[in-house]
């Protein structure tokens, strides 16, 4: 039950208690609710920027891991996609499109993880293939030649004489007339 007077209102509660409130209390509550709604909206907007920055940071880390595993060599498609999605995520964050930036950064992180995994697998396969197998093949030894009765022992021969050196003919003297 509410009884009114000029400066305040008397409010009786169900338990028999009587509370006194100023008339503008309801107005103050309405104002405080509006302030609360505005504060929550501002906080929600700020959270979008913070969460987008966190996801972009995770994507940057994943792209750096992929590059450190030489993913440009072993997983070019996935690495290129990760790089491009990350650039676009940063661009969208700069335009305050935080949910788009988060989605793009998440795609970048996914492709960077795929690139790192594929690069690690292919790098391991290349390393295993690069180790040569130690297979040594040798020619069979020559068969021994049985000595024959008609074979003469080979003796070294004397050196062949040197070929004679021929001198050029001497020029003829000129005759006078």
In the residues, how many domains can be counted?
1
Shape: elongated
Structural class based on helices, strands and sheet pairing: mainly alpha
Number of strands: 3
Lateral arrangement of strands in the main beta sheet: 1-2-3
Major β-sheet annotation: 3 strands, antiparallel
Task: Give me the number of helical elements.
Answer: 4
Helix-strand topology string: EEEHHHH
**β content, as a range?**
5-15%
Helicity, as a percent range: 55-70%
Average pLDDT across residues? 77
Distance from first to last alpha carbon: 173 Å
Rg over alpha carbons: 50 Å
Give the uncertain stretches in residue-range form. none
Can you put this structure into words, describing what you see?
The protein has four helices and three strands. It is mainly α and 177 residues long. The chain has one domain. Helix 1 runs parallel beside helix 4 and helix 3 packs antiparallel against helix 4. The longest helix has 44 residues. The chain is elongated, with a radius of gyration of 50 Å.
